[in-house]
């Protein structure tokens, strides 16, 4: 894996770019759900939200998540980068697992909207809209501060 060492800055840059795109989607999709809750099922507005939500998930969020995982995995196997004894790394990975769970939950909720069977309130989606921010703050603190 030594061939990764000279590529480290590029891999890290692509990882950060992927994360930014993924986070944008994780923050925007629940906001679309908030507005979608107010659209009557079958209305033109509801159909517009369905198209926006599908495109956001499939064209931006899914590829960005995969890219973040691929470049993150490359960083983890680059010699001298990951300290597997450090608690901050394991905490970061746990928080990333939380983001991944949220991504999949949002995908399932999108399917509910697509089938006109959403049963959650706009308030629920407003609360869920804050979850990625909290997880992101934890991840950034773990990576930058490395408190343990």
Descriptive report:
- The protein has one domain (2-144).
- The protein is 76% helix and 0% strand.
- It has helices spanning 8-37, 44-77, 87-114, 122-128, 131-144.
- Helix 1 runs antiparallel to helix 2 (44-77) and helix 1 packs antiparallel against helix 4 (122-128).
- It starts with 7 loop residues before the first helix and ends with a helix.
Question: How is the biggest beta sheet arranged?
Answer: none
DSSP summary, beta strand count: 0
The end-to-end span amounts to 27 Å
Note the overall shape.
elongated
SSE pattern, N- to C-terminal: HHHHH
Supply the number of helical segments. 5
Ordered list of secondary-structure elements with their pairings:
Layout: H1 8-37, H2 44-77, H3 87-114, H4 122-128, H5 131-144
Helix pairs in contact: 1-2, 1-3, 1-4, 2-3, 3-5
List its salient traits.
5 helices, 148 residues, single chain, mainly alpha, elongated
Task: Write a concise synopsis of the structure shown.
Helices cover about 75% and strands about 0% of the residues. It starts with 7 loop residues before the first helix and ends with a helix.
